[in-house]
Design brief:
Length: about 375
Amino acid sequence: MGKKLATLLALALLVPAQFAFGSEESELKTKADLGQRLFFDVNLSKNRTQSCSTCHNPSHGFVDNRPNGIEAMVSLGDDGISLGDRNAPTVSYANLIPRITRNDAGEFRGGQFLDGRERDLAGQAGGPPLNPVEMAMPNKAAVVARLQENDSYVKAFTQLFGADIFDDPEAAYSAMASSIAEFENSDFFSPFDSKYDRYLKGEVKLNKQESLGEALFFSQQFTNCNKCHQLKAFPNSLGETFSNYKYHNLGVPVNNAVRKANGLGVDHIDRGLLEHPRIDDDNQAGKFKVPTLRNVAVTGPYMHNGVFRDLRTVVLFYDKFNNSTRKLNPETGKPWAQPEVNQNLDLQSEEFSGPALTDKEIDALVAFLRTLTDQRYKPLLEENL
């Protein structure tokens, strides 16, 4: 049996059938039950080809792993042609992202999507069905009409939200989004059962390389990784999501392959947080939300536009700012490309400064990041060795 086939079979055994296929037989007694069914329902897209789970595959770290000609850097739309401009972030642990806020220093934190444009999971769930390059439904009323085609949905919606719920398409659409959010709030999306979690509970030990990576990750003198990728006060890392959910411009370059494929062209600029419809502050241009590192080893490609394929490349990208020997992108063999947004850059700040890292230390950091993988994705982790 081939390694890839063995991995797929192992994952199929790990993911319960009702999650993998959205069982039509189970009764929809709760909002979470209803949200589960909706999460897997392709009928909520224009051509009935795409569901939430298409771009957030529960068998693959809740990201889009479909082969689409550009190595899953961005997602293919319901029409089989349209391509997005951002990499679909995992919805693993997304229920723990706080609502977007701004502090007295003008720093934003939290919110759903890479630019925080939705406050919560329900807002996020309501976005893709109406996005013209995703599920492409024309309006909320059209989505609600699709819901009413399904007798089990009609029964569940009226029982859970009232007999007149379908009289108001806006209310019915909101009920749909909140039900999906309720499902995404379940432990299935945030099990906290990685090797690192089990290590913190004393159930397993980290190997020598992983232990070095842990020490480097939390070091104030060497990497400062935890300045952005830690929410809880150390050492209480149980339940840690490995993100402070702030926004930074790391100087990520344009993904030329994506821009060529989706037709936007290399001159198009993704302004990050400044794309948020309610933010009008040039100081936010080019900033994107710090992602969780949970399952990071199996949810590539990386950065907001999928420009890096390998996790080690990401660590090297950070190190190049403190290490004059890191002149070339190992994936292209060429010098690192210029930032897409060359303002508000953060990597020269104290948070991102530190000594140059050796190859041994780079590999140790990658080894530690691999320990943040949920148990059910261990087959994927082994495939990526």
